[in-house]
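S.,

Sequence below, as promised.
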Amino acid sequence: MSHSSAGRKAQPPHYRFRTEAYEQFQTIHVNQGELHYADANGEVVLKPGGVALLREGSAFTLWTERIGYAGVFLIASGMQEPQLRGESSAFQGSAGTRQLAALMAVEAAAPGPGTADLLRNLGWALAWLALRLDLRRHARRGAETGAQAAESARQALEASIYTGQGARKVLSSLGMSYRQLSRHFLRHFRVSPKRYQLQARLREAERLLRDTRHSVTEIAFELGYSSSQHFATHFAAHAGLSPTAFRNRQARTDRGESPR
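The prediction came back faster than expected:
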């Protein structure tokens, strides 16, 4: 059977609560003071405006230090909504959560007929708004993680152009599946890791043809190609010229002659 209640909440200095499997759902909004929150992901200090979303089944620790805190809460048990279970979290709320918390505090300070129902309704509004904010936070965090993964993959591919290793082998050390990395990479660079590595290798080939006297065969082997013919085929598809023709055209350009 489900049950929920809402109202004011406060804890004194040096309060501490720890659980390995929380048995209910609770939202706490800090109006005054400081509430410390910690879970496997780290520690957060909730100051006025901070929100703790304590989900059923989660492990976390709450405590206060030199000063306690005062705020408002909604607590519920026996609920079936999946959003109320899982990992807990703590974060800075929004203008909307602050307004709802302020309304709850005012109503709780001067109760009247229907106060319990009003507080419960305001508490659920606060909880669902906080849950929505948490969902957005996770979406942003996922996007940031994807961007970081894509950049790490790009740097690894750039560093691999002389190794002869394929993209899958190069990226195997980054701690993420090749499929997942490829999805992030394609989203951020609009090209697959394999294609990016080939383009990076051929850009380096252009530089070597332009700035060194290495033979085409030497360049091919330096860049990990199994044969100069294989290299020449890729280079022609990339530059529209054979390696030798590219080098000759670049030499004419350097002498101030018109390219043919």
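The chain is about 50% helix and 20% strand.

Coffee later?
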